[in-house]
Design a protein that fits this description.
- α10 packs antiparallel against α11.
- The protein has two domains: 349 residues, 3-Layer(bba) Sandwich (FAD/NAD(P)-binding domain); 185 residues, no CATH class.
- The chain is globular, with a radius of gyration of 24 Å.
- By secondary structure, the chain is an alpha+beta fold.
- A hairpin with a 4-residue loop joins β8 and β9.
- It is 35% helix and 25% strand.
């Protein structure tokens, strides 16, 4: 130990997905930087949070670890099946249309249909794959079974990390990837309060010999989310016959029930016939020693300081109903990696880099929290939690009719998750509007379809700079800001802005965009891109960047606003699976 250096370019507390993402990406783009990961556990170790979103796969591919994760033969997540909303009707949400999912042998490559899917992982195996990849493939130094006992600081500057060995580690950049313990964040006095209305607890177990609810192609499936009067159950296939099954309910409800975690968990299983059927031949792999945790949504007051960064759950967490935990962890770590790389290059303003990281990632977590509040407030299945859900809505100032709900949700920002197109948490705008319909029981239309005359509105704006992350660099992008709304001048936003500068007729605008798409794209891609244009137009209209009018002297322009992401009834989802098997 005494022969090892005590100073590193980057010292990371925590060897989970956020820490390994940051270290792998920094090493990929700047191999000369020295990195130390300090991990208190010995991997593999058990961890909850198995269900991913497709945004994780993009990052895994950039880390050059996707092939290793794919080789582990984790189930492919095409989407989810839910009972959630204004009634007990079941519906499915697919990232990629099940009827178009082709059989392909595994392990497969990250291309084609697999770029639209996610994994459902056993976290002990998954986290170890990522840690060993950072260590062996990228040369990151890893110390397991090592505790950080003290954060040495002077003001807002970290001076070192004192380990349980007595050694003091110093670094140019310090990173808190310690998850819920948030060792560095707490030591630096940064608060992160739980979100009102989302103070939930989770009880879960793992089962062997469980049955998948649906099999799509080779290795593909949907997670199951089933509402109860007092909470909801997840069923996540983790292998051919292994599953993670858990119950989420408000912590107050659990305390008032008078039941132990084990009693409440098994009560929930008995009351949910679909999940019970999947477990009828299954056996608990923990001898029914139910595992527990607090799943409290929270958001730190800031995510960066003088020489330190907070990534992953240490900085924020959104309720697991949106399955966004790993997406936020990988995404924030990727952004922090790019930020450190830019600071090391010394070509951009350090304070801008830090403020952009802090603002974007805090806004991203907050957008997911806002969406989760709407999910809970609008779930009519929670008959035992009606007062609780009404309070969530009231505290948020949320009206539940479609137009008011949509305006409230839109305040989360459409360009925050992907600077090149319009996104909404883990969903695109089309699927988000469909969710509003399911939750409210009323139709939620695209407002852009009401108009045939569109005018670009850049009045009373200020120009700001945002960042576009690619290939290890942050490109500064001109953007417009009016109040909280931000309009980036890049990607699909730029294409539409440029057309709107010279055209006002909706049909002419649409045909101009369509002409650009027709060059070099296959029909499937053309359909997807054109719907993305429609969503960007809708987002710009909602945020006031477009003023829409109906000119009676011009013909009405009709649009098909069916989306590329599929939300449909369970019966339609089942038919899609049958269609995929008959292809």
């Amino acid at each position: 130990m005494s022969d090892q250096p005590t100073h590193y370019d980057i010292a990371i507390i925590g060897g989970g997905p956020s820490g390994t993402t940051l270290s792998s990406l920094v090493k990929k783009y700047n191999p000369d930087l020295s990195i130390l990961i300090i991990e208190k556990e010995k991997f593999p170790r058990e961890h909850v949070g198995e269900s991913q979103l497709p945004g994780v796969s993009v990052v895994l591919h950039e880390m050059e670890v996707w092939d290793k994760v794919e080789a582990a033969n984790f189930p492919i997540k095409l989407g989810g099946s839910y009972t959630w909303g204004s009634d007990n009707g079941a519906w499915d949400f697919d990232f990629y249309p099940a009827e178009e999912f082709s059989d392909e042998e595994r392990p497969a490559k990250y291309k084609g249909q697999r770029t639209h899917t996610a994994f459902q992982v056993e976290r002990d195996r998954y986290d170890e794959i990522l840690l060993r990849h950072a260590e062996s493939h990228w040369g990151v130094e890893v110390r397991e079974e090592t505790m950080v006992r003290e954060i040495l600081r002077e003001g807002d500057r970290v001076m070192g990390l004192k380990l349980d060995t007595g050694e003091v580690i110093t670094a140019t950049h310090y990173v808190d990837g310690s998850g819920h313990p948030a060792l560095l964040r707490k030591a630096m006095g940064v608060e992160s309060k739980p979100t009102d209305g989302l103070k939930n607890v989770a009880f879960w177990d793992y089962y062997d010999n469980a049955t998948w609810a649906v099999e799509i192609g080779i290795g593909g499936t949907r997670v199951q989310v089933r509402s109860l009067p007092y909470g909801w159950i997840w069923f996540i296939p983790l292998g051919p016959s292994r599953a993670s099954v858990g119950l989420i309910c408000p912590s107050d409800y659990y305390k008032e029930s008078g039941l132990t975690p084990k009693e409440l968990f098994h009560k929930a299983l008995k009351e949910q016939p679909e999940i019970s059927e999947l477990l009828k031949d299954a056996k608990s792999s923990t001898d029914e020693n139910v595992l527990t945790t607090k799943n409290w949504s929270h958001l730190a007051d800031r995510l960066a300081g003088e020489n330190w960064w907070i990534i992953g759950e240490a900085g924020g967490f959104a309720d697991p109903i949106l399955a966004a935990g790993l997406t936020l962890a990988h995404g924030s770590a990727r952004h922090a990696a790019y930020s450190i790389l830019e600071i090391e290059r010394g070509e951009q303003d350090t304070e801008w880099i830090k403020s952009f990281y802090d603002e974007k990632n805090r806004r991203n977590v907050n957008q997911h929290i806002r969406f989760a509040k709407y999910w809970y407030a609008a779930n009519g299945c929670f008959t035992d939690l009606q007062e609780h859900c009404q309070k969530i809505a009231k505290d948020a100032g949320l009206k539940l009719n479609p137009s008011q709900a949509w305006r409230w949700l839109a305040q989360g920002g459409f360009s925050n998750q992907n600077i090149e197109t319009a996104a909404f948490g883990a969903f695109d705008l089309g699927s988000s509007k469909k969710l509003v319909e399911i939750f409210s029981g009323k139709e939620s239309k695209f407002n852009i379809t009401k108009f045939n005359h569109l005018t670009l509105n850049l009045k009373n704006t200020q120009q700001i700079t945002q960042g576009k992350l690619a290939n290890g660099s942050i490109e500064q992008v001109k953007s417009y800001q009016r109040g909280e709304a931000i309009l980036p001048y890049t990607g699909l936003w730029k294409q539409i802005i440029d057309v709107l500068k010279v055209e006002t007729d909706f049909q002419t605008i649409f045909e101009s965009l369509q002409a650009a798409v027709l060059q070099g794209s296959d029909k499937g891609a053309q359909k997807t891109i054109m719907f993305q244009y429609v969503q960007v137009l809708e987002a710009m209209l909602i945020d006031g960047w477009i003023i829409g009018k109906h000119n009676k002297n011009r013909p009405k322009f009709t649009l098909n606003t069916g989306g590329s992401r599929m939300i449909r009834s369970a019966a339609e989802g089942q038919q899609a699976v049958k269609d995929s098997k008959s292809r």
